Amino acid sequence: MSVPTVARPLSNSLTAGKLPKNSPIWMLLASWLVAGLFFVVLNVSGATDGFNVIGTVITGALLYCIAIYVFSRAVEGGRKATDRLVTALVTGAFIIALIPLISLVGTTVINGLPAALTPTFFTSSLRNVVGEGGGALHAIMGTLLVTGTATLISVPIGLLAAIYLVEYGRGRLAKGITFFVDVMTGIPSIVAGLFAFALFSLLFNDPGIRFGFGGSIALAVLMIPVVVRSSEEMLKLVPNELREAAYALGVPKWLTVLKVVLPTSIAGIVTGIMLSIARVIGETAPLLIVAGFTSSMNYDLFSERMMTLPVFVYTQYANQGADFQAYVDRAWAGALTLIVIVMVLNGLARLIAKIFSPKFSR
């Protein structure tokens, strides 16, 4: 006679228990508290010199990862526990990546804001200024002129090259362009400066030539591969169905690119262009070589030396005078101005992308 078997209840991870809503926050706070008490004990015992804030934060975060996994596995099951652990690790990695950025921006604002708020910083140059006083107007204008000219040179070339690679390029020529773009992406910035300097030295037979347009050429060499790569990826994201629909209506290929492909990808292209500008606007080595530096205003890109903000920051910090604090303050203020310009450019890029991006309606 067979013995009847008793059916065991099935365990379904999808219907398991669930931790309270705010339990991750309380676990994180408790982990930091335990880690803080641990470092307080070490400090009192003389094992460490002072309370270690960074050690407390990192140790508490590690304890939180262990605690959230253990408690979630006990209550919610293995699947949810793994999900919570990975979420904690990804969030921690994101916060760790933000720490240097926040520290950099905070330090620059704290040190540069007092000098940047002086009445003369944005309204005067350093001509005939020794020690305290003066401003960075000549460097700001130089940066805008040099970078703007580099953008006017590199964007048409890079965008047309990307259109050729995506829409027309086939065979050895396209492969060669792709190869050289990849090579140019990794060249050091000082090589671009040396190239521009050597080019204009040979053209004008002047071994000591320094002028703003040479800096624009050096920056354009650095910008072109970034514009090509970013624009190429954005053009590839345009669905082929849109192109085929235009061809079916009898629209020629060049007009399809102009009226369909470019408007569809304009948001990503503008973002890539802004990234390329942000990539080169802070370059110092090529501008120091071919554009030089000066303390006077210069609006002519084709004559005499031209100061830019990166070179301004470098020279102020490297060539300190008797009143060294004034030079350091101007260097921090120049760095803050450069960050603000990049932020404004990124804001304009988002605005332009929002205005010109295609509008879809149902």
UniProtKB/TrEMBL annotation:
Belongs to the binding-protein-dependent transport system permease family. CysTW subfamily. GO terms for cellular component: plasma membrane. NCBIfam families: 3a0107s02c. GO terms for biological process: phosphate ion transmembrane transport. This is Phosphate transport system permease protein PstA. The chain crosses the membrane at residues 25-45, 51-72, 84-117, 137-165, 177-203, 209-228, 260-281, 331-353. Keywords: Cell membrane, Membrane, Phosphate transport, Transmembrane, Transmembrane helix, Transport. It is found in: Cell membrane. It is a multi-pass membrane protein. Its main location: membrane. It comes from the Bacteria. Part of the binding-protein-dependent transport system for phosphate; probably responsible for the translocation of the substrate across the membrane. One of its GO terms (molecular function) is phosphate transmembrane transporter activity. The keyword Cell membrane applies.
